[in-house]
Amino acid sequence: MAGPFLFEQMSWKEIESAQKRTRTVVIPLSLLEEHGHHLPVSVDYLRAYEIAKRVKKSFFLLPPIIIGMGRKTYAYPGTVSVSAETLKRVIVEMCESLHFTGFRKMFVFSGHDGRKHSKAAEQAVKKLRKRGINASYIGASALEKNARERVIETPGDSHAGECETSEMMELAPASVRKNRLVRSFPNYPKKGSALEFRKANPSGVFGDSTKASRRKGKMLIDEAVKNLSKLI
């Protein structure tokens, strides 16, 4: 069956030749970010990259671009965040570079769903479209929305909880520290500094990772793969 061309493994001549089959490229984009005591900081970019790798269609898949915004997690060691302006500029200039070398359909695909991160990426894509470049922004959580409603038991689960832990059990099971799973629903201040957000949430989790399972993770990932395939 068909599958993505893994950009980083190809020579430039192989890329040029493969452009005769497709000029679509998926750009997995997410920051390094804390995900509790039980998950690695690579969760977000692994989600996007591994979901895209499972799509059985011909397209180019870039290696993960490790950049993004993490407002509530900024003060935790392991989170590496940039400004909205930096994020927008990277997306715009990267897509312009790809367009110049012959790519004609681009999907900026994020495994991180922070509101400000997503807004900045959407603004960058809007700017690209005004310049005549066919670019779209996709968040992984939007692709699995229906499966979440069927599978996830925890109301309000949002960060390093039941959903993301289940997905990592499917995508990278050895990375999950199962003896450190917790349930945590911190009371965040309406407004506050990054240090105040960290103080309100000592574990870094917002949800219930104890309810996670690989079965749930597979259902979520399968749904995301199916919907990404339709878009491509």
Give a short summary of the structure.
By secondary structure, the chain is of the alpha/beta class. It is built from nine helices and seven strands.
List keywords for this structure.
Rossmann fold; five-stranded parallel beta sheet; 232 residues; 7 strands; two-stranded antiparallel ribbon; alpha/beta; 42% helix; 9 helices
Report low-confidence residues grouped into runs of 5 or more: none
> Helices and strands: which structural class?
alpha/beta
The CATH architecture category equals: 3-Layer(aba) Sandwich
**Alpha carbon gap, first and last residue:** 16 Å
- CATH C-level class: Alpha Beta
Please report the total strand number as a whole number: 7
Provide mean pLDDT, rounded. 96
CATH topology: Rossmann fold
Radius of gyration: 18 Å
User: CATH superfamily name?
Assistant: Creatininase
What best-fitting shape do the alpha-carbon axes yield? globular
Side by side, the strands of the main sheet go 1-3-2-4-5
Strand content: 5-15%
Query: How many domain regions?
Result: 1
Number of helices: 9
Largest sheet: 5 strands, parallel
Query: Strand-and-helix sequence, N→C?
Result: EHEHEHEHEHHHEHEH
Helicity, as a percent range = 40-55%
